[in-house]
Amino acid sequence: MVGSGAAGGIAAYVLTIKGLKVLCLEAGRMLEPAHDFFTHKFPYEWPYRGEGKPGQYGKLPQGMEWKIKEWTDHLYTIPAEDPYALAPGSKFTWTRLRAVGGRTNLWGRGCDRFGPLDFKPKSLQDGWGEDWPIGYEDVEPYYERVEQLIGVSGSSEGVYNTPSGKRLLPAFNPRCGEMLIRKGAAKLGIKVMPKPLAVLSRLYDGRPPCHYCGACNWGCDVGARYSSLDVLIPQLRRRKNFELRTNAAVHTILMDRSTGKARGVTYIDTRNGLEYEAYGKAVVLAASLVESIRILMNSRNRDYPSGLANTSGTLGHYLMEHVAFNSIEGFFPELAGRPTTNDDGPGESCLYIPRYNYGHKDQKKYLRGWRLDFYTGCGMSPGPGASLPGFGSAYKKKIKELYPAAVQMGGYGEGLPFFWNYVEIDPGGLRDRFGIPQVRFHTTSEYDHAFAIRDEMYGQMEEILKASGAEIFPYKKQSPYPLGSVTHEAGGCRMGNDPRTSVLDEWNRCHDTKNVLVVDAGCFVSHPEKQITHTIMALAYRASDHLAEEFRRGDA
Amino acid sequence: MGERLIGRRQSLKYLGMLAGTVAGREFLAAWLPKSAAARELDALRRASYHAASNQPNERPYTPLFFEKDELSAVEALTELIIPTDESPGAKEAQVARYIDFIVSAAAEFNPSLQHQWTEGLQLLDRLSREKYRSSFHEISARDKEKLLEEMSLPEHDAGQTHPGYEFYRLVKEMTVEGFYTSRVGLIDVLGYKGLSALGEFPGCTHPEHQT
Asked: Per-residue confidence at A250, pLDDT binned at 50, 70, 90?
C-alpha cells in the first residue's frame, strides 16, 4: 500500500479488516492533531497574520495565492522548495500534502456521489468521450459503505442523477443568505439542496460532533470531520496485520522478470536519504494520481521502456480537472446593517445547487453541466465591502454595513478528458529533494468547452443571485483556472475494458500487471461536476474488496 | 489586588483551558447556561486583547523598514483610510506598524514590495511639494486628505488617471488587510463572533427568510 490519504486510508482499512497483511508506506510524517493543527488561532496570533512573509509561498500561475497559510505551511509542500516542471505554455497547480492522512487532513469535505449518467457520458449523454467500464449500480454499495464508515451529514432529496445515501446524519441548518438563495432559485425552478458533508452533525462512531468553529480548512482538532488520520489509522494501528511506515517515499515498483508480476517496491527513507526495498504479493498505489503515475513511470526498465503499465501509451494522459474560475461577489440589501451573527456553522456552506441543465440545447458549444456553490454570512474577512471605492469613515461604515450581507457564488463545470493534457517525467532531468525524477506537466485549462461552459455559468449565477435579491459587484471574467487548482485533478491512468486505450481494468488493476493496482483518482474516465473524493473512496473500497477476494480464492 | 479579582482571573483561565478541549466544551455547554458561557468566553477574549494592546508607558516604536518621517506618513495614510470614529481605526490597530513589519519581511521573497513603498512614499512627497510646498508628513491633515482624494479619483471614474493611483491602491489594500486581520478590526469593529465552540448551530431562524 502506497499512501495513506483518501484512497490509501480506505484501501488499507478494507485489506486489513479482511485479514491481509498490509504494509502502508507513507512519504510524509505522522501528524498529531494536538500539535500539528492550529484550528483555533486567529490571524493576529500569527506573525504575518496568517499569510506568511510576502511571497513566501509563491504565486499560482493565475496570480492567486496557494492554499498554503501559516496555519498549514508545515503540512503542505511549498512549491518553491520542491519544484515540479511545466512544459512551455503549460500551467498546473499541484497541491501536495505529504503526511499520514494526506490531503484528507485539510480537504473540502464535500461528499457527492456520481450519478448513473456520470459513469456513462458517451452512451447516455452525448456520444463524446468514453464510458466507464462500470456503472452506478456497481459503485452504489461502496458509496453506502464509505458513508457509514466516515460519517456523512446531508439529506436524501431524490434529485435527478444526483443520488444520495438513505442513512445520512441530519443535515446542517443553513444561514440566512443560503435561505434567500433557496427562495430565489426556486423562482427559476432550480433546486437547492443540503450539501453532503463528511462532517458529523451528531455524535457518531465514538467521534464528537462538529463544534462549529468553521476552521476545518486548517485541520480539525477533534476529528469531527473525516480524515483517514483521525478515523481509520488509529483503528488500523491496533491490528497486528497492519504496519504503517512513515517517511517512506516510494521510488519504483520491483518486477519479477520470470512471472511478469510486481514483487514489491523500492522507497527512500526521507530522514536518511537511503533506499530500501519492501516486498509483497500485490502493490496498491494510492499516492495521489500524479505521484502514482510518477512511480509507474519511474519503474521503467528494459522490459517496460515507456514506464510500467504503459503498453497502451495512455499512462499520464487524459488529465482532467473541474472547469473553475473566479466567483461572483455581491450582497443582500435585505441583510445589510444587521447585527453580526456567528455564521461559521460546519465550515462549508450547508446548501448547494446540484446540476440541473440536463438535455440542454447548446451541445455544440459545451457539453454536460455544472454545480453551483455559494458562501454567505459573517466570516473572518471583511467581505465584499473592502473592494468598494473610497476611503475614510464612510468607507469603513460601508464595510461594516455590508459585512453580514456578503454573498459569493462560484461553481464547477464538468472537465473533459483530452489526450493532450498529460504528465510525464521531466525530460530536463529535474529531481525532487530526495533525488527521485520529478514530473513535468503538459496541461492547459483553456479549451473551447471550458470557456463556453464558464460563460454559461456566469450568466446562470447572475440570474440566480438577482432572483435571490442580491446586488452583484462588477467583476471581470477570468480564464478557467489551471488544471489542479481545485485540487480535484483526476485521470492519467484511466480504467477501461480495452487494454489498448486504458491503463487499468474495472477493478483498478493494471492491464499489464494485474497485481499492481492504482486506487486513487488516476482511474477516472470522466470528470463530472460533482466533487470527487467520495468516488475515490468508494472505488478504492471496491477495488480493495475485490483484491481481498482474489487473495481469499488464491488467485492473486 | 483583591481576592475577588484573582478568583475571576482563575476562573477565566479554567474556562479557557476547558474551552480548548472537546470534553471541556461539552462540559461547558452542559454546565453553563448558553448565554453565560458565551459571555465568559467573550470576556476572556477581550481581557487578552486589552492585555496585549493597551499597555501604558509603552516604549517608542523603532521602525524596522521605514525612516521616521516615512513612518509618520504611513501612519497618516492608514488613519485616513480607516479613521477612528465611533469605533477604533487604523491608529488603535497599529496598522502602520503592521505595514512596517510586513514590508521589512518582504526582503526575503518579494523585495519589489519594498521598492514599491519607498518609491511610492517619494512620489507622495513630490506630489505634496508640488501642491503644498512641503513634504507629505508636514502638510495639514486637511491637505493630506485632499491629496489622497485626488490620488483615488480613478477608483470612482475609470476614465481618470493619477500618477499616485497605484500607490494609493497599495496603501489601501495593505491597510484594509492589516486592519481587518487585527483584533481591533476583526473583533471590535466587525464584531466577528466565530472561531468559537458552539453546542449547536441554529442557522437562520428568521421567519421572513424561510420559504
From this structure: very high
